[in-house]
Amino acid sequence: MIAVSLVVSATLSVTSLESKPDVHWIGVSAPTNNVVWLSGSNATIARSTDAGETWEYFNPTSESLQFRDIEALDANHAYALSIGENGDSRVYYTSNGGRNWQLRFRAGSNQFLNCIAMANNGEAWVYGDSIEGRWEMVRSTDGRNWLSASNVVDSAPLPDEGGLAASGGCVRFNNNIWAIGTANGSTARLLLKRTFGIRFKAIDTPLPAGPSAGIASVWPLSEKEVIIAGGDLNEPQTQPRLMRYQDGEFIALPEPEFEGALYSLTVRPNGDMLVSNPNGAAYLSSADMTWEQLSDANIWNSACINQRCYLVGKDGFVARISFDK
What we know:
Blueprint: E1 12-17, E2 25-29, E3 36-40, E4 45-48, E5 56-58, E6 66-72, E7 78-83, E8 90-94, E9 102-106, E10 113-118, E11 124-131, E12 134-140, E13 146-149, E14 171-174, E15 177-181, E16 189-194, E17 201-204, E18 213-222, E19 225-232, E20 242-246, E21 249-252, E22 264-267, E23 273-277, E24 280-285, E25 290-295, E26 299-305, E27 308-313, E28 318-323
Antiparallel strand pairs: 1-28, 2-3, 3-4, 4-5, 6-7, 7-8, 8-9, 10-11, 11-12, 12-13, 14-15, 15-16, 16-17, 18-19, 19-20, 20-21, 22-23, 23-24, 24-25, 26-27, 27-28
């Protein structure tokens, strides 16, 4: 059993859910009220159609890959991203609820892909580490055809600029805006593009930068407002870790009590926020801008749909958050 501190308050409750204890869950996607998909170590994907009460498990490949990100469209259709070099960075797709998987894209031997995001129209972006002064991304316009894309940002990448594959949150599509958070360079940068834009605009941010530091998760609210989360994986006390970009300025937001770079960020429609890292998960009420710690488990990612959110992490950890209103 995993020793986990779970919180029940007047507005929300957290329920621990059973799953495979030998899998480190990293990706999570909740496309509808009762459907949730997970991805993680041991080349394992999980799907639930009853809000996490029971799970089906799948292995898209017999190879020992880490599926760091998953983007589900519904109960049947999902894209899973594995990471690594030497061809281990791949995109797999299922159209029948996980029973069968197709390899849609395999990166080159020196490519390392970090995160994937999908738009409702089928457009997808995969963000990868830069190589020799060249951006390395992958784009699809329809979910079927995937092509490498390098001339897609208004400036060249910084030396060693790439991403943090901690939660799959370093690229996201929301409110007709594409956002990417960079890491490992001398400056952590925010890349923004409108749906019909040609190139991403690179914006310098005040988040910690350098090796194993930068932006781990982004959440675009509009072209002029984005929430970013991250930090320094090697320096747990380094701040800021959570900021709001608004009208060209960066504003530091209240920090959760636990230390360490923030891996995941989820923003609910009411403005409340959920963050997590190996030291736990916390929930920020936008009404009074105060944090409530939900768990002290090793949690890598989160996802929300309507009145539910999910937390996933190491040693098979899965929890469901339910809201009273």
